[in-house]
Design brief:
The chain is an alpha/beta fold and 379 residues long. The protein has 16 helices and eleven strands.
């Protein structure tokens, strides 16, 4: 019997890679629902190919346009549509791959429906990690990581005693600007920031990689995915993106997961876990990749990682505030309204002025999220 999948974020980079895995394993996987933010042209092509039972578009006007183009498949709009896809009764597995905190309510819907969940949307755990973990425990739901770094850690932890873990070490490519000087960074453009040296991703996450904010968000996500204290989570720059992350144990042993930088691997791992099936990725070539390098990040050129570490260790509402403010600042940068350097400068001022509070209920989480967005819009 094929595993039936609801895919939220189908038109993004992770969504497209997920559909590549489904094509690779047609006897194992089946798409029953698709959801996207606004790209109805690509979504239309995907629906024609995979014939889902339900489609959703977050942009309500575009949902109506898409429904006219394909009247044979129900198309729902807005947040209600995303939640319907996430809780569809026919789905066995829900893959959350939408960028940003827009994925929070669909995640809740999937958890409430007791679905098996693959999480590629790190912002869900960043803004609501403690509450989401409690809800998962209450509903008996496990979250399978899809990001390559967290998938690597998940693989390294299999069969291990978590008490024996000394450190989780996440690797970062360093992003598009890892070799630029502080002076050069003053002049970088939005187009340059969207050119990642190793991965093909969407605009927002690629900009986050260039500031190292993405690694900071991933460290916060790791804290809640693996229930590990912040002090035991670290990051290093690894330009080759071949060691996807590693785990050090108290005896000094380090387990690392290596693979070509191809999102199909962690996606397939989550979709087929606990089995391992032949994948579409190229075999790893040790002779081609003869050198692996690692070094610390520069907090002067890339302050966002240290700001994230502060939020991680301070806890409470800091991660939620950080995530929402960063989303707005990145969007302002992409629109040409602020400079790349201003993302870190403004974020530092905003997080320094934040008065923390407990975020153990959905209303509190949404309130902090909105407050951060309002402040970042005019910072």
């Amino acid at each position: 019997m094929r595993k039936k999948i609801s895919l939220l974020g189908s038109t993004g980079s992770v969504g497209n890679s997920t559909l590549r895995v489904v094509r690779h394993l047609p006897d194992t996987l089946e798409v029953v629902a698709l959801a996207a933010k606004s790209n109805i042209d690509l979504l239309y092509d995907q629906a024609l190919e995979f014939s889902p039972k339900l489609v959703a578009v977050f942009d309500k006007e575009k949902a109506l346009l898409l429904q006219k183009r394909m009247p044979h498949i129900p198309v729902l709009g807005g947040m209600e549509g995303l939640q319907a896809v996430a809780s569809l009764s026919e789905a066995d597995f829900v893959l959350l791959a939408m960028t940003g905190s827009v994925g929070l309510l669909p995640a809740v819907a999937a958890i409430e429906a007791r679905k098996q969940i693959g999480i590629a949307n790190k912002e869900i755990l960043v803004c609501a990690g403690e509450w989401i973990r409690a809800l998962c425990t209450q509903k008996g739901v496990d979250l399978l990581p899809v990001d390559s770094e967290h998938c690597a850690i998940h693989q390294c932890l299999q069969g291990q005693d978590k008490k024996a873990v000394r450190r989780l070490i996440l690797t970062a490519s360093g992003g598009a600007f890892r070799d630029k000087s502080l002076e050069e960074l003053q002049q970088v453009s939005a187009q340059e920031a969207q050119s990642h040296p190793n991965w093909q991703m969407g605009a927002k996450i690629t900009v986050d990689c260039s500031t190292l904010m993405n690694k900071g968000l991933e460290m916060i996500e790791a804290r809640f995915l693996f229930d590990i204290e912040p002090e035991r989570i670290e990051a290093v720059i690894h330009p080759q993106s071949l060691v996807h992350s590693c785990v050090e144990f108290v005896d000094g042993s380090v387990l690392a997961q290596l693979a070509e930088p191809d999102m199909a691997l962690p996606i397939q791992y989550a979709l087929t876990f606990p089995k391992r099936l032949p994948g579409p990725s190229a075999p790893y070539n040790f002779l081609k990749h003869g050198t692996l390098t690692f070094y610390p990040h520069d907090p002067v050129r890339f302050p966002c990682l240290n700001i994230s570490l502060h939020a991680l260790r301070a806890g409470k509402s800091y991660p939620c505030f950080l995530n929402a403010a960063n989303e707005v600042l990145v969007e302002r940068f992409l629109q040409g309204k602020i400079s790349w350097v201003a993302i870190g400068e403004k974020l530092d001022k905003l997080i320094s002025s934040h008065q923390p509070e407990n975020v153990l209920a959905l209303d509190a989480i949404l309130s902090v999220d909105q407050r951060a967005r309002d402040l970042a819009a005019f910072a």
